[in-house]
Amino acid sequence: MAADIAKLVEELSTLSVLEAAELVKALEEKWGVSAAAPVAVAAAGAPAAAAEPVEEKTEFDVIIKDAGPKKIETIKVIRQLTSLGLGEAKTLAETAGGKVLSAVGKDAAMEAKKKLEEAGASVEVA
């Protein structure tokens, strides 16, 4: 095990600064952590409750604002993302403010947004 760690350290030592930064970003996204150094609170007498961390949002809704000029393409993407039939997908595409996906993870929401925007739709992730 120690030999594996030493080999890994040796390989990581060959990375350029940009490659190391990309590695850190990829690991942060993969593991859901931050590599930023913690900052000590130096305020004397500050209550501990004031330093309470803000919870990060974990569930997102993908909301269609407008189907765009290529409505058929948008309907096809909605059908790929959901289990809706043709009629339901068409109705959803034509309904401004309709939720295509509800309570999905950030990656899934961003991927759905990307696909819908490529089809020409205006989309919001909330």
Written overview of the protein:
The chain is built from five helices and three strands. By secondary structure, the chain is α+β, with helices and mostly antiparallel strands. It folds into two domains: 1-31; 60-125, Ribosomal Protein L30, Chain: A. The protein has a three-stranded antiparallel beta sheet with strand order 2-1-3, with helices on one face. Helix 3 (71-81) runs antiparallel to helix 5 (106-118). The longest helix has 15 residues, at 17-31. It is elongated and about 60 Å long.
The pLDDT mean sits at: 79
Compute the number of structural domains.
Answer: 2
Classified in CATH, the superfamily of the largest domain is: Ribosomal protein L7/L12, C-terminal domain/Adaptor protein ClpS
Q: What is the beta-strand fraction?
A: 5-15%
Tell me, what is the CATH class of the largest domain? Alpha Beta
Radius of gyration from CA coordinates: 22 Å
| Strand/helix succession | HHEHHEHE
| Low-pLDDT runs | 39-44
CATH topology of the largest domain: Ribosomal Protein L30, Chain: A
The biggest beta sheet is recorded as:
3 strands, antiparallel
Helix content: 40-55%
Helix/strand-derived class?
alpha+beta
